[in-house]
Automatic annotation (TrEMBL):
Species for this entry: Mus spicilegus (Mound-building mouse)
PROSITE patterns for the chain: STAS (PS50801)
PANTHER family: SULFATE TRANSPORTER (PTHR11814)
GO CC terms: apical plasma membrane; basolateral plasma membrane; lateral plasma membrane; recycling endosome membrane
A biological-process GO annotation: carboxylic acid transmembrane transport
Catalytic activity of the protein: nitrate(in) = nitrate(out); thiocyanate(in) = thiocyanate(out); bromide(in) = bromide(out); hydrogencarbonate(in) = hydrogencarbonate(out)
Name of this chain's protein: Anion exchange transporter
Family: Belongs to the SLC26A/SulP transporter (TC 2.A.53) family.
Length: 655
């Protein structure tokens, strides 16, 4: 018996610690999303738009190459370790790899090493689950960093746009040294290159603006990048511009893909700085685009999964001499405009790029570098026009405006990763400096508000007929960080559940540190089915903390249930404890308002400061037909009941 019991216990213990097949399946689907969406792919509806979008994306890929910001960071390492000046010191004999010289292989090897180490850093960040710290990357910091990095890329193309021969300049304040060199050697500008650059930029901007304006009327936009490449290469070949005018051309492009080969591991320590830059800048820029897509198409983004995806996409290709990659704003916008439905568009794009690599690449020999530089500069338009965000930040939160300016200055003075680090540290320091001065509502104040709501509702509903009575739930705030919400039910006498009003008090500042947690917790409350017969104790157990008391990160697991089981819900946010906010906090409030509106939940804000009202009105497209800002919670409740009476009267008149 003893042996049998031991055997039974060991079997049970093994079952407890052996992962179920379903758990493994779910893990694989979470880490390899293609396993989830590929079996559900609709060939009839999605294949044609995905094919068209994939072809257009491939055209952009051929014209612009990979992500400009990570390419610039990689170029810093290449020029530092294998500068152009060392070409004459290196054996010029061709190697057995695609006919490349030893000098070219050394430079490519440095870029591959940056890609490999950058991918390894991203995979380590995935293992450490550092995606949960991405809430520190606020929108102003990301916007300023990407704009500054785009400015660096434009600066790196100036020598090609003007046709100037100049040494490679990098390092701190290198941005200013480049323009100083250009002005000192302004007489050496090649007129032919300058005119061709201006013509290319004008044609690109004009045609792309026309494509944007008429994209709803035309099924396929004009691939102006490809047309310009073909036209410029043909014209350069026919007129022999390389020899006649001295224009610099792209030159020899090898056919095919080299056999797999490990990057040079002996230089990993020398490229550590650039690898960190690639890992952080590439991830941040890609995550910003992913979050923008998530807002647009109503889905969630796993921040840690992004580390895994980008890490693998840098480590594996590095064995094939590939440079670091990341998502690009221009190509993402291109997928939107051409009507891509799924990730199949990207797979089709990859197939067409392979065709170019194996068959069409050598034909780009005659492409003038000034035309290629023009395509790269115009492709950065989406990042450069982020300067327009300054007006928005100034009107919403002037501190965020200052953070944007300072982050941009640090980025152009030093590097993108330095600017990003400065922006994050500056943001945290300012918030930590503002939090100690923040005031919250005291318990006495909250009780006075509860009593006021209860008294007014009792007096005003004493003579209401049953059909017009309202169930009011008041969720007052808590004073201690991390504490749970204290739920009180205030119900007037002789009441039936006809309409539910939820009152939630915000008792802490709303900033980037707690905005995500606030949004997640608030959506949990909104999406829960309300049960008017639920006892008070059970309500206290089931409700979550929505008071911004916790500064931890949270994810919103939306439920399929509707927020109200009877009639339309109304939500009143008491903002008397919202002592200060930043741009992220305002955007969170506006997005929650719009999301609730789409779910047929009316949202009203009480006790808002004039600056908060101005910021929310400026930021978002709020409903101006009916008031949403009120001086007090009772005033908001009064309007809710008035609207309900008008709705009842309208229904009766129709009958």
């Amino acid at each position: 018996m003893t042996g049998a019991k031991r055997k039974k216990r060991s079997v049970l213990w093994g079952k407890m610690h052996t992962p179920h097949r379903e758990d493994i399946k779910q893990w694989c689907k979470r880490r390899l999303p293609i396993l989830e969406w590929a079996p559900q792919y609709n060939l009839k509806e999605n294949l044609l738009p995905d094919t068209v979008s994939g072809i257009m994306l491939a055209v952009q890929q051929v014209a612009q190459g990979t992500f400009a910001l990570t390419s610039l960071i990689s170029a810093n390492a290449v020029e530092r370790l294998v500068p152009q000046s060392s070409r004459n010191l290196t054996t010029q004999s061709n190697s057995s790899v695609l006919g490349l010289s030893e000098f070219e292989l050394q430079r490519i090897g440095v870029a591959a090493a940056v890609s490999f180490l950058g991918g390894v850093i991203q995979l380590v960040m995935f293992v450490l689950q550092l995606g949960s710290a991405t809430f520190l990357l606020t929108e102003p910091v990301i916007s300023a960093m990407t704009t500054g990095a785009a400015t660096h890329v434009v600066t790196s193309q100036v020598k090609y746009l003007l046709g100037i021969k100049m040494p490679y300049i990098s390092g701190p304040l290198g941005f200013f040294y480049i323009y100083a060199y250009v002005f000192e050697n302004i007489k050496s500008v090649q007129l032919e290159a300058l005119l061709l650059s201006l013509l290319s930029i004008i044609v690109l901007v004009l045609v792309k603006e026309l494509n944007e304006q008429f994209k709803r009327k035309i099924k396929v936009v004009l691939p102006v990048d490809l047309v310009l490449i073909i036209a410029a290469s043909f014209a350069c070949y026919c007129t022999n511009m390389e020899n006649t005018y001295g224009l610099e051309v792209v030159g020899h492009i090898p056919n095919g893909i080299p056999p797999p080969r490990a990057p040079p591991m002996n230089i990993l320590s020398a490229v550590l700085t650039e690898a960190f830059g690639v890992a952080l800048v590439g991830y941040v820029a890609s995550l910003a685009l992913a979050q923008g897509s998530a807002k647009k198409f109503k889905y969630s983004v796993d921040d840690n999964q992004e580390f895994l995806a980008h890490g693998l996409s840098n480590v594996i290709p590095s064995f094939l001499f590939c440079i670091p990659s990341a998502a690009a704003m221009g190509r993402t916008a291109g997928l939107y405009s051409t009507g891509a439905k799924t990730q199949v568009a990207c797979l089709i794009s990859c197939m067409f790029v392979l065709i170019v690599i194996y068959a069409i690449g050598p034909l780009l020999y005659w492409l003038p570098m000034c035309v290629l530089a023009s395509i790269i500069v115009v492709g950065l338009k989406g990042m450069l026009i982020q300067f327009r965000d300054l007006k928005k930040y100034w009107n919403v939160d002037k501190i965020d405006w200052g953070i944007w300016i300072s982050t941009y200055i640090f980025t152009i003075c030093f590097a993108a990763n330095v600017g990003l680090l400065f922006g994050v540290i500056c943001t945290i320091a300012i918030v930590l400096g503002r939090f100690p001065r923040a005031k919250t509502l005291s318990i006495i104040d909250m009780k006075e508000m509860e009593l006021k709501v209860k008294t007014e509702m009792h007096d005003s509903t004493e003579n209401w007929p049953p059909s017009k009575r309202t169930n009011v739930k008041v969720f007052p705030g808590s004073l201690k960080t991390g504490s749970n919400i204290r739920s009180l039910s205030v119900t007037p006498r002789r009441m039936e559940t006809s309409q539910q009003i939820k009152i939630i008090s915000i008792n802490n500042p709303l900033v980037f540190l707690n905005a995500k947690k606030f949004s997640a917790d608030l959506m949990k409350i909104i999406l829960k089915e309300s049960d008017s017969n639920q006892p008070l104790d059970d309500v206290s157990k089931c409700e979550q903390n929505t008071l911004l008391s916790s500064l931890s990160n949270g994810n919103c697991n939306e439920e399929a249930s509707q927020p109200c089981s009877s009639e339309k819900c109304s939500l009143v946010l008491n903002c008397s404890g919202l002592t200060f906010y930043d741009y992220t906090g305002v955007s969170t409030l506006v997005e929650l308002y719009l999301d609730c509106k789409s779910r047929s939940v009316d949202v009203f804000l009480a006790n808002c400061t004039a600056s908060l009202i101005k910021a929310m009105t400026y930021y978002g497209d709020l409903d101006t037909e009916k008031p949403i800002f009120f001086d007090s919670v009772p005033a908001a409740i009064s309007i809710i009941q008035s609207n309900k009476n008008l709705s009842k009267a309208s229904d009766n008149s129709e009958v």
